[in-house]
Write a structure and sequence with these properties.
mainly alpha, Methyltransferase, Methionine Synthase (B12-binding Domains), Chain A, domain 1, Lysozyme, two-stranded antiparallel ribbon, globular
Length: 651
């Protein structure tokens, strides 16, 4: 029924759209091809809801050519479109050009109008303040030294100034070199190394050798390598890099030279080796982390320290690792939950209860688990009242929403999504719920979820967790003996119910199936004449996707956690991540080595609980669904397909 309503609404909107649509599309094509003459002809407003777009494309082309810039025309557009996403985008492009050219006066005037400046613009702003003699700029910029890994070019002069003004020490420079080399940002690591005191600057070629062939570099170290700071640092960098590819080999080489390092340097080396071992689920990781002691670690290293303790079943180690985390990390629901579990296991029931109370009451993975530890099952919150006529009218007449809807109608999904998201910022719950209802009516399901997900006090979970295409999904789930709530939970994570969704790696459709996987499934089913177009057909996509879910479920102990991991990362990896002993399902999920897959599995499993509450009227236990993951016993299933896709957030 809803699909029919959406079709009628889209037909009405299309009928109302004037022939100016052709002008918008022609202007877009001219902008893409760089045809400035054609673009100029389309730039003048003509009474279309998307008039700002041709004008933006024209002004953006001017900004790209400094000699063509007309500041008065830019400011007039920005003022006329104040608060709009295109104004933010155009001003950001203008500011980047001003920053590159060092036109700090104009930059300082325009920058305060930016609502969400990206990192490169923030660094240009620091440059502008320094050029204008702002004495506080460097103190405020100092955290960049420790936080930036991906380093925009605009940030390099700021970092250089921190060094020149002696606001970072040689030890802090070496720490940054290490971080950048760990992240394979070799070029920026060489920049940072060149700012060391003259007697500590390593040869750039040595940095490259330590990174490119760390085993050979370490095996050829001269006996006196430890006599200099650069010699020791390069050896540590090589050990860290080798640990990524050959963790045990890195540890063996470390043992040969550990006495050449200071205690702090030994802690760094062991911390790096333990981190890589933990991500490979090596049992030695927990021991190596303990040997590393209290050496400073990144948030990611510390998180894996806790995960290694979880895999080892060492609740005291779990508690110690989490309590050593920075507050910003320790207070995240993930670690609050596991700290609560550790406290409970160690007999600190009151402390555990306080932690569970702090994070309960939400539809997220660890919130649901925390509630269950308190003896509460997940319950849908009271449904907010529907939008009033005035609230619905406000949404429909909001210019950004109107532009987003028009862009979706023209199949300009990227631009439509950005307009929609920008229009949802700083909105109250009533606006968000009305926007979600409107998007649902139009069949723009991903934006309906996006808006409903943002509410803070009033909620409508039937909008947050939409269940469209039931006439397709439920029969396929039933015929394959799949839990419909799990299918919906997975599909929500994969595509947000966008039938034309396509990931960056080519996965397509509602269930985000890779072309090669679709062909593999079709072959298993004896289907002839497979072509990629099948994946764009919702009926075939759902049939192939649910078939694959049944296959991976049967090949992985009928365990939904393993099958969810397999859907995202492939069955081989899901098997590999099991332990040599039975493992609590939640610990298996938390210790998945791929960040994307770990997040994906948690969200799919939490989604399935909410969908069960919506579809069946009662939520099952998440902890029971997670169950126990049995030890690996070889690949008996013969299921060797790749994963269907990578799960679209569509946010």
């Amino acid at each position: 029924m809803r699909a029919a309503i959406a079709a009628v609404l889209w037909a009405v909107l299309a009928a109302q759209a004037d022939t100016g649509d052709e002008r918008i599309l022609a202007a877009r094509d001219a902008a893409r091809s760089g045809d400035r003459a054609r673009l100029a002809a389309y730039a003048a407003p003509a009474g279309h809801v998307l008039d700002p777009y041709p004008e933006y494309w024209w002004l953006s082309a001017q900004v790209a050519r400094p000699a063509d810039i007309d500041p008065a025309a830019l400011r007039e557009f920005l003022e006329r479109n104040r608060g709009a996403w295109l104004a933010e985008k155009l001003r950001g492009e203008w500011l980047r050009g001003l920053g590159r050219r060092g036109e700090w006066g104009t930059f300082a005037i325009e920058y305060p109008f930016m609502e969400q400046p990206e990192q490169d613009l923030q660094c240009y702003q620091f440059q502008a303040r320094l050029a204008n003699g702002d004495g506080m700029a460097l103190a405020e910029a100092r955290p960049l030294w420790f936080n930036l890994v991906d380093t925009p070019e605009s940030c390099v002069p700021v970092l250089q100034t921190l060094v020149r003004e002696a606001l970072v020490s040689p030890d802090e420079i070496w720490a940054r070199v290490r971080r950048l080399m760990e992240a394979k940002r070799n070029t920026h690591a060489r920049y940072a190394a060149s700012w060391l005191p003259a007697d500590q600057v390593p040869a750039p070629s040595d940095l490259d050798k330590a990174a490119a062939n760390p085993a050979s570099y370490l095996d050829r170290l001269p006996p006196n390598f430890s006599a200099t700071r650069p010699g020791r640092e390069l050896a540590l960098i090589a050990l860290a890099r080798l640990a990524r590819d050959d963790t045990l080999g890195a540890y063996v080489r470390y043992q040969r030279m550990d006495e050449r390092f200071s205690p702090a340097e030994r802690g760094y080396a062991l911390g790096q080796i333990a981190w890589q071992a933990a991500q490979r689920l090596m049992p030695e990781a927990h021991t190596w982390y303990r040997a590393a002691g209290d050496t400073p670690m990144s948030d990611e290293q510390i998180a894996w320290r806790a995960r290694a303790a979880l895999r080892a079943g060492d609740w005291k180690g779990v508690r110690s690792a989490i309590e050593a985390m920075p507050a910003s990390l320790r207070e995240q629901p993930d670690w609050a939950y596991w700290l609560g579990r550790a406290q409970a296991a160690l007999g600190k029931q009151d402390a555990a209860r306080r932690l569970f109370e702090q994070i309960g009451g939400h539809p997220a993975f660890y919130s649901i688990l925390a509630d269950e530890e308190l003896g509460r099952s997940f319950v849908l919150p009271k449904k907010a009242r529907g939008p009033s006529d005035d609230e619905a009218t406000l949404v429909r007449t909001t210019p950004g929403v109107q532009r987003a809807v028009a862009l979706f109608r023209l199949d300009m999904r990227t631009e439509g999504t950005r307009e929609w998201n920008w229009s949802m910022r700083n909105r109250d719950d009533r606006f968000l719920l009305a926007a979600a209802a409107y998007a649902q009516e139009l069949g723009i399901y991903d934006r309906a979820i996006n808006a409903a997900d943002r509410t803070r006090s009033e909620h409508d979970y039937s909008l947050r967790y939409l269940a469209p295409y039931r006439e397709r999904i439920e029969p396929n789930a039933r015929s394959r003996d799949l839990d419909t709530a799990w299918v919906y939970g997975l599909m929500r994570q994969e595509s947000r119910f966008v039938t034309a969704a396509r990931s960056g790696v080519g996965a397509q459709g509602l269930m985000q199936i890779m072309p090669s996987t679709g062909q593999w499934i079709a072959g298993k089913l004896g289907m002839k004449g497979y072509n990629i177009g099948w994946l764009r057909d919702p009926d075939t996509n759902v049939m192939l996707g649910t078939t694959y879910m049944r296959m991976v479920l049967e090949g992985l102990d009928n365990h939904p956690v393993l099958a969810s991991a397999a859907y995202n990362a492939g069955p081989g990896r899901a098997r590999k991540w099991r332990d040599s002993k039975p493992l609590e399902g939640a610990i298996y999920a938390e210790t998945i080595p791929f960040n994307e897959t770990r997040d994906y599995v948690k969200k799919v499993m939490a989604n399935s609980i909410v969908y069960a509450a919506l579809l069946d009227g009662r939520a099952p236990s998440l902890k029971a669904r997670l169950g126990t993951v049995l030890p690996g016993n070889g690949d008996a299933s013969g299921l060797g397909s790749p994963a269907p896709g990578a799960g679209l957030e569509n946010e």
